[in-house]
Amino acid sequence: MKYRLKVAINYLLILIGAALMGLSIVLFLSPNKIAAGGVSGLAVVINHLFNIPIGVIMLVFNIPLFLIGLKVLGKRFGIRTLFGMIAFSLFTDFFNNVLHMPAVTENPLLASLYGGLLLGIGLGIVFKANGSTGGSDIVAQIFSQKRLMTAGNTFILIDFLVISFAGFCFRGVEYALWGFIALYISSKVIDVIIAGLGYAKATLIISDKSEEIKDLIFEKMNRGVTFLKGEGAYSRKGRDVILCIVSRREVSKLSEIVKSTDPDAFVIVQEVHQILGKGFKPRENIV
């Protein structure tokens, strides 16, 4: 029962994400001739050239890609991709051709910023629900499977070609530039939704007084630490390296503890996007 509920929630999230993506196309990107890469960007261009509904164009490209994906990638390719790409196409044409929703703004900068934001939120939600809306995602997986090109490089190549094609068809470099802005914004938003805002910090502390520092962290911060075995490359002297995960607000307190104990300590602070376990996010909250 719990598994079925989880699956139902994921499909609902895919619907919500697809709806937001459709809104980004209809309210911001398409009216301002901004193609943010992928099949949806190509559909925006073709729509303005031939007045064919955007959702129909996306399906025309996506269905053959999906069939090829099934053949190459097998069953693991998943029904959620088919569900996501159909939902995205239907929502886009419903908002545009049935509800006739007007553009929110005619300012291309605002359209690229908010269109990219909304597109990223929608696609991030879809990815978070282990779904996909097809398009370049299918091509990337096929190329990666066949070892023709890495998935990341495939995305970059497809998006670059689509956005450049839009600039050529609309006869203006500015259209391509707006498209790259929208693409950048959407990709960053996707990262935030999938990985989080980076609310915690991982610190590595290299000091000859690791025991004293460890005791103070226990006493004053109530945080756990892990000792990693390290060795100085020059001195060949072994020492304990302290690994400690803290929240953003605790970084300064930790720095004070280290500085007061060993002013010569070497401290590395890294951003961490997701921490599962005691003191942070409980594992059972992960869907």
Task: Give your account of this protein's structure.
This protein is α+β, with helices and mostly antiparallel strands and 287 residues long. The chain folds into two domains: 2-195, no CATH class; 200-285, 2-Layer Sandwich (Alpha-Beta Plaits). The protein has helices at 2-29, 38-50, 54-73, 79-98, 108-128, 136-145, 151-169, 173-195, 210-221, 251-261; strands at 200-206, 226-231, 238-247, 266-272. A hairpin with a 6-residue loop joins strand 2 (226-231) and strand 3 (238-247). Mean pLDDT is 87; it is low at 283-287.
How are the secondary structure elements laid out?
Layout: H1 2-29, H2 38-50, H3 54-73, H4 79-98, H5 108-128, H6 136-145, H7 151-169, H8 173-195, E1 200-206, H9 210-221, E2 226-231, E3 238-247, H10 251-261, E4 266-272
Antiparallel strand pairs: 1-3, 1-4, 2-3
Helix pairs in contact: 1-4, 1-5, 2-3, 2-7, 3-4, 3-6, 5-8, 6-7, 7-8, 9-10
Question: Which residues form runs of ≥5 with pLDDT under 50?
Answer: 283-287
Largest sheet: 4 strands, antiparallel
Q: H/E series, N to C? A: HHHHHHHHEHEEHE
Strand order of the largest sheet: 2-3-1-4
| Average pLDDT score | 87
Number of domains: 2
Label this structure with key terms:
single chain; 287 residues; alpha+beta; Alpha-Beta Plaits; 2 domains; four-stranded antiparallel sheet; 10 helices; disordered C terminus
